[in-house]
Amino acid sequence: MEKDFVCIVCPNGCALHAVENDGEISVTGNRCPKGEEYAKAELTNPVRTLTTSVATVFPERPVLPVRTSGAIPKGEIKNAMKAVNAIVVKTPVSCGDIVCANFMGFNVDLLATDDLRA
Ligand code: SF4
Q: Among the residues of 18-96, which ranges form H helices?
């Protein structure tokens, strides 16, 4: 299996080429080891940190920006967005507060990335 990626770990955006042969993955195009790590993960278990917003009950602040505290499987992003759309924040929160603990059972929390005052 062969696959091309653009490394998103840093702004350099290196063009990576990964080749999997008998379980061994070789990566070219990376300017640093992080690119190799990224390409191997993309080939075997791609993950993403989810950054989005949730609804609130406060008319003057109807949405609150949130992100997951860690990466979740890329293939679950669509389901994660459905779960996010079902969340409504009903109390004030501070930046960094947990909006949803153990989000979707992925062992990461959904965190507020801004303050929400009543
Ligand atoms: S391979 Fe290294 S230098 Fe290139 S984009 Fe990825 S992290 Fe940045």
A: 33-44, 77-85
